[in-house]
Design goal:
heterotetramer; A: about 240 residues; globular; B: about 300 residues; alpha+beta; 4-stranded antiparallel sheet; 4 strands; binds adenosine-5'-triphosphate; binds magnesium ion
Chain lengths: ~240, ~300, ~240, ~300
C-alpha cells in the first residue's frame, strides 16, 4: 500500500453543530498533486486539519503513511508530523523569532546541525525573495512576506506530504506563480501536495486534479473542466449558495 | 543563539508573569528561612528547658541576723537534702553567684552589704524518682522557717508546651511554603502555557516531542526558582542577624542565649536547591500533564 | 477644503531601515474611491497604517478631515478614529468575542443604544452571509468568514473613510464581487474608500482610480490602463523586481 | 451581556495571571491583619508595662514564726512607707492574692498552711519623684530583716524597649504589605496589558478613549482586590483567635491578658476597602501611563 493519506467514511462535526464533513472517502498516492476547492466555509481548512493531526474526526478512519491515526500512540505523533509540512491559512509564524528562526524551527526540533540549518534556510529564503528580511520579525514583514516565510517553513524539511491552505492569498500573480513552481519542484521529488485555494485562475491554469468540497461531501475530479457545467459553477460559488448578489 | 541551551523557541523573556516567580519564590524562601531558624532556636530552648525541668530544684532561705548561724543552718540543710532519696547532689551557691542573680532585680543595691541577701541552694535530682517540691519544703520547714522551694515545674512545663507547639508551627510554615511554592510554579507554568499556546501548537505541528517543550519550561522555572531562592536566602540572613540582636536580650536568663549555629545556616542554604528542585519537577510535570490533554 | 486625507512629502522609515515611503504627496476627496496597488512589500499596508493613525510618519505632513495629525492632542484621536473604518490584512478580530460582538465593538465604544446595535449588526451580518454564525467565535470561523466579519466591523459605523487591506484575499470571486458591491454602496453614501489589493482582475474590472506604490513612491492613476505599458507590468510585478522566474 | 458594567471587551476571565491577584492580595491582607492585631496587642502591653514602670514597687517580706507579729511589722512598714516622700499609696496584699501569685510556682503547696507564705506590699509611687528601690530597702531593712524590694525597673525597661520595637515592626509590615500589594497590582496590570495588547490596539482603532480601557482594568483589579482582601480577612480572623488562645497563657502574669478589642477588629476589617482602593487607583494609573506611551 503506497497511499500517503487514506480517508474512509470520515465525518467531522464541531461541538453540537452540523456535520462539516460527511462520509469523506479518498486516498492520495505518494507524489500526487491536488487542489482543494470549495466555497468559503465548505470545510477545506477542516479537511486539512484532519490531515495534519490538529483535529480528530468525529467518525471514520484516517491513515497517514499507512498508520491508523487513531491508534498511533502520542509518542509516535512527532515522527509522523515531521513528514508533513503545513502552510496555515493564518500563517502562524512565531512572533518572537526572526524569519530565519521560524523557517529553521522544523530542523531544530529534529536536531539538525546548526551549520546545515544555516545553509538550507538561507538558500530557501533567498529563493522566496526574502534575502533582505532574514533577521526580521514577522510583525515587521508585509503580509505577502509573512506568507512566504510560512511557505518556506513548511517545505524546509522536505516533507513527504505538503498541505497548504490558501498559500497565495496575500501575494500577486507573479509571486503566486513562483511559489507554484516551488511546489512543483517539491512534487517532482516525490512529495504529495494538497493546496486549498480560491484562486480559480491558478487551478484552471495548472490542469491538476481537484478535490471538490460541497455540502460536506468530497468529490475527486481529474480536472476542474471535468466537472459537469451545472455543478461547476458551484465549485467557486458563495457560501453554499446563500450569497447571491 | 544566546540562551540556546534552553531552546529559544519559547519567548519567556517577554512574559511579565515569569518576572513574578523569582519574587514570590524569594518571599517564600525568606519565610521558610525564618521558620527554619526559628525551629532550631526553639529546639535549643526546648532542650534547655527540658534539661531544667525536674532536674534541678532551687531552694531559697531568708538571711538571718548572723552570717555564721546562717552558714551552719545551710550546712545542716545540705546534709538533710543529700540524705533524701532521689537527690543527686545539693550545693549552696556562693555569694557572688547570688549577687549576679539578683542584680537585674535590685540593681547596684544587690552589692550593698546593708541588704542581707537570701541564701540559695541548687539541688540536682534524679529524673526517675525526683522528690516533690512540697516534700522538700516540708522536710526543711521545721528546721529553717521561711524556706522557699521552687522546682520550676508548672511554669517550665507551660513554657515547654509553648515552645514545642511553636516548633510545630515552624515546621508547618516551612511545609506550607514548600506547597505554596509548588502551587505558584503550577500557576505560573499554566499561565505561561496559556500565553505561549500558539507557539506550543506550532512546535507540535513541526514535530517537537512533549518533553522537548516541557524541558524548556522546567529549565526556565528552575532558573527562576534558583534566582528567587538565592534572593530569599540573601535577604533572610541579615534579617535573622538583626532579629537575634533584637531578641537576644529577651531570654531573661530563663532561656539560653539565642544563637544561630552552623547547622542552622546550612539548613537555610539548603532551601536554595530544594526550591529549584521543586520548581523544576513541578513545571515539568505540569507541562507534560497539560500537553497530554492537547492534541 | 474638502479633502478627507492629505499627505505632503510624507516619508516613512522603520528603525534604521531604508525609507519604505518617500515623498508621498496626495489628497483624497470625500466620496472618492481608489485601489492601492504595488508589489508585496511595496508599502501598501504602511501607507494605510499612516492613514489610520497606527503609525507616525518619519517626516512630512498628514492631515485627516482637515486636521493636522501631528498636532492633534491624544484626547481628540478617538473622535478622529471613529470616522475611519479599517479592514486589517490580518483581520484582527477579538478572539474572545462572538462575530456579533466584534462587529458591534465600534458602536459600543461610541455608546450607541443596545437595541439599535442589535438591529444594525444583525442586518449587516446577514448581508455578508454570516446569518448562521453570529454567535460564533472567530476561531470557529473559516478564513473567509473571518474576513467578512472584519469587513462588517469596518463598515458598521458608516465611516467617512474606509481603508481596506487586501479585503478579498480569502474569499472566492463570487463573494469578492458581493463585498465590492458593499463598498460601492458605502461609497455612494459619501464614504471615501481606499482598497489595497493584489487582485488584478478586480482592479481592471472596476475601472476605478489607482494609487500605485513602487520604489517608495506613489503615483495616482485615473485607471490601471492609463499606466504606460512598461511600467504597467510592474504594477503587479514581484518584490521590486527581485523575484523573477 | 453578563459583566456588562465592566465592559466585555477585555477578556480578563481567561487570564491565568489575574487568578493570582486575589490570592496574593489575600496573603498580604492576611499578614497585614496579623500585624494590625499585633500592633494593638503590643500597644496594650506597652501601656501596661509603662504603667508598671516606676509606678509600682513590690516589697516582699519573709514570714516570721508568728502571724500576729508579722502583721504588726507590716502595719509598721506601711506607716513608714506612707510617710516617705514620693509614695502615693502602700497596701498589703491579702492572703488569697498572695496564694494566687505563688500558685504557678508552688502548685497546691501554696495553699498548704504548713508553708509560711511571704508577705507582699504593693506601693504606688509618684512618677515624678519616685523613691529608688534601694532607698526603700534601706529604710525598711533595720526594721524588717530579709525584706526584698523590686521596682521591676531594669527588667521592665528592657521589655518595654522590645515591645516598642515590635510595634514599629508591625507598622512597617503593614506598610510593606501595602506597597507589595500596589506593586503586585502594577505587575498584574502590566502583564494584563501585554496579554491583551492586541485587544487594546483594536479598541483604540475603533475609537475607544484611554479612560474607557483604564476603567475596565481598574474595575477588574479592584474587584479582584476586594475578593482577595475579604479572603485574607476571613482567614485572618480564626488564625488570630487561635493565636490568642495559644499565646494567652504566655503572659506569665507580667503582661496583661491578650485580647482583641472592637477597635482591632474594625481596623482589620478596614483593610478590605483599603486594599480595593489601592488596586483601583494603582491599576487605573498604571494603564493610563502605559497607554500614554502607545500611539
Ligand atoms: N473550531 C471550530 N468550531 C466550530 N466550528 C468550526 C470550527 N472550525 C471551523 N468551523 C466551521 O466549520 C465550517 C468549515 O470551516 P473551514 O475553516 O473548514 O472552511 P474553509 O473551507 O476553510 O473556508 P475558507 O475558504 O473561508 O477558509 C465553517 O462553517 C466554520 O464556521
Ligand atoms: N514594523 C515594521 N518594522 C520594520 N519594517 C517593517 C515594518 N512593517 C513593515 N516593514 C517593512 O516595510 C516594507 C513594506 O511593508 P508593507 O507591509 O507596507 O508592504 P505591503 O505593500 O503591504 O506588502 P504586502 O502586499 O505583502 O502586504 C516591507 O519590506 C516590510 O518588511
Ligand atoms: Mg479555510
Ligand atoms: Mg500589506
Amino acid at each position: 500500500m503506497n497511499d500517503v493519506v487514506q480517508f474512509e467514511s470520515v465525518g467531522l462535526r464541531y461541538g453540537m453543530g452540523p456535520e462539516v464533513l460527511q462520509d469523506v472517502t479518498f486516498a492520495l498516492d505518494s507524489g500526487s498533486f491536488h487542489f482543494l476547492v470549495g466555497a468559503s466555509g465548505a470545510g477545506k481548512s477542516s479537511l486539512l486539519r484532519l490531515m495534519y493531526l490538529a483535529q480528530r474526526p468525529t467518525r471514520g478512519y484516517i491513515s497517514l503513511f499507512g498508520r491508523d491515526v487513531s491508534t498511533t500512540p502520542r509518542d509516535d505523533l512527532p515522527a509522523l508530523r515531521r513528514k508533513i509540512g503545513v502552510v496555515f491559512q493564518e500563517f502562524r509564524l512565531l512572533a518572537h523569532m526572526s524569519a530565519f528562526d521560524n523557517v529553521a524551527l522544523p530542523l531544530r526540533v529534529a536536531n539538525v546541525r546548526e551549520s546545515e540549518i544555516k545553509r538550507h534556510v538561507e538558500e530557501l529564503l533567498v529563493w522566496v525573495g526574502l534575502k533582505d528580511h532574514m533577521k526580521a520579525r514577522p510583525s515587521t514583514l508585509s503580509g505577502g512576506q509573512q506568507q512566504r516565510v510560512a511557505i518556506a517553513r513548511a517545505v524546509i524539511a522536505r516533507p513527504k506530504l505538503l498541505l497548504a491552505d490558501e498559500p497565495t492569498g496575500n501575494v500577486d500573480d507573479h509571486i503566486a506563480q513562483r511559489l507554484m513552481h516551488l511546489f512543483d519542484e517539491l512534487n517532482k521529488l516525490g512529495t504529495s501536495i494538497v493546496i486549498a485555494t480560491h484562486n480559480e485562475a491558478m487551478v484552471r491554469r495548472s490542469g491538476r486534479k481537484v478535490l471538490k468540497l460541497a455540502g460536506g461531501e468530497l468529490r475527486v475530479l481529474d480536472n476542474v473542466a471535468d466537472d459537469d457545467s451545472d455543478e461547476f459553477a458551484s465549485v467557486f460559488a458563495g457560501d453554499r449558495g446563500r450569497i447571491l448578489l | 543563539m544566546k540562551f540556546r541551551f534552553a531552546g529559544p523557541e519559547l519567548p519567556f523573556a517577554r512574559d511579565d508573569t515569569t518576572r513574578f516567580l523569582p519574587w514570590l519564590m524569594a518571599f517564600m524562601v525568606f519565610l521558610a528561612a525564618l521558620s527554619v531558624a526559628g525551629f532550631f532556636v526553639l529546639g535549643d530552648a526546648a532542650r534547655a528547658i527540658d534539661r531544667g525541668i525536674e532536674n534541678t530544684v532551687t531552694i531559697q532561705l531568708p538571711a538571718g541576723d548572723n552570717v555564721k548561724a546562717d552558714e551552719d543552718r545551710i550546712a545542716g540543710a545540705l546534709t538533710m537534702l543529700r540524705a533524701m532519696p532521689g537527690v543527686a547532689s545539693a550545693e549552696a551557691l556562693n555569694r557572688e553567684k547570688i549577687v549576679q542573680l539578683l542584680e537585674p532585680w535590685l540593681g547596684a543595691a544587690a552589692r550593698s552589704t546593708e541588704i542581707p541577701l537570701p541564701w540559695v541552694i541548687d539541688v540536682r535530682v534524679d529524673r526517675a524518682n525526683a522528690p516533690k517540691a512540697e516534700a522538700i519544703a516540708a522536710l526543711l520547714q521545721p528546721y529553717i522557717p521561711g524556706v522557699m522551694v521552687d522546682d520550676h515545674g508548672v511554669w517550665l512545663q507551660a513554657l515547654l508546651r509553648a515552645v514545642r507547639s511553636s516548633e510545630w508551627i515552624a515546621i508547618i510554615v516551612v511545609l506550607l511554603n514548600g506547597l505554596a511554592a509548588a502551587a505558584t510554579v503550577v500557576f505560573v507554568t499554566r499561565a505561561g502555557m496559556g500565553l505561549h499556546r500558539e507557539t506550543i501548537e506550532v512546535m507540535h505541528f513541526v514535530g517537537a516531542h512533549d518533553t522537548y517543550i516541557a524541558r524548556q519550561f522546567a529549565l526556565r522555572a528552575s532558573l527562576l526558582g534558583l534566582k528567587g531562592s538565592v534572593i530569599g536566602v540573601v535577604l533572610a540572613a541579615p534579617a535573622l542577624m538583626l532579629l537575634v540582636l533584637l531578641m537576644g536580650n529577651l531570654g531573661f536568663g530563663l532561656l539560653p542565649e539565642i544563637r544561630l549555629g552552623v547547622g542552622t545556616w546550612i539548613s537555610i542554604a539548603g532551601l536554595v536547591p530544594v526550591a529549584a528542585a521543586i520548581a523544576l519537577v513541578t513545571a515539568h510535570t505540569t507541562v507534560l500533564k497539560s500537553l497530554g490533554r492537547m492534541i
